[in-house]
Every structure is written in structure tokens, then in C-alpha cells.
């Protein structure tokens, strides 16, 4: 059986993570919240159970901004990189651009949420 393990972190390296296990729901999203969170029109996401993600950088856990009733957006308070979404539930969404290696086939987005409006493309 393949052991899945991914490492990544923010632009300055203060926040680092290790995520273990098969990622769930690889997808892209162009909702307004993702756009404002990142400054990009579209984000690539993968999800892991909370207890599969360890924050291992010297900055510890990322800073959080409460973005909705069920989720907070995670970011590095030093460099400002967007890192993911930490839900009230058992799931953490990580942004694929922060991964050191994101070319594995199980990370390829399989669906898209909130298509861009024609005025944005
Ligand atoms: Zn940083
Ligand atoms: Zn979104």
C-alpha cells in the first residue's frame, strides 16, 4: 500500500505542515471568499481529516480569520500567505499552491466550485 505524505508551507517558511493519508475532494473553487482570501481568481484545494495534518514549522499553527459559521481561513501572520480553511467539523482544506510537490495524480482537481462569471475570464 502506498504511504501518502505531503509537506508544504507558507512563503516565508514560518508555517509548515505535514499531511498524511489520501487527500479528499481535490477541487478548484472560484467563490468570492476564496478570491478575497488569496487574491487569486481560483484556488486549488485538497481536504484532509484534522488529525492527519501536523503543523511543524517554527510558527506553529497558522493564524485564523473566522470567515463563516463553520470555517476559519488560515494564513501566516508573518508573510501573509493563504494556507487553507480549518472547519469547525473534522476537516482541514489545504491550498495546493503551498505544497512542496503538487504534481501527484491524486492531487489533480476533480471538480470545480463556483464557476467564474463571464466577466472574470
Ligand atoms: Zn509565512
Ligand atoms: Zn471557495
TrEMBL record:
InterPro entries, per database record: CENP-V/GFA, Mss4-like_sf
Organism (species): Xenorhabdus innexi
Family per record: Belongs to the Gfa family.
UniProtKB keywords: Lyase, Metal-binding, Zinc
Protein name as catalogued: Ribulose phosphate epimerase
Domain named CENP-V/GFA: residues: 6-121
SUPFAM superfamilies, alphabetized: Mss4-like
Keyword Metal-binding found: yes
Keyword Transmembrane: no
Organism domain of life: Bacteria
Membrane-spanning ranges: none
GO molecular function annotations of the record: carbon-sulfur lyase activity; metal ion binding
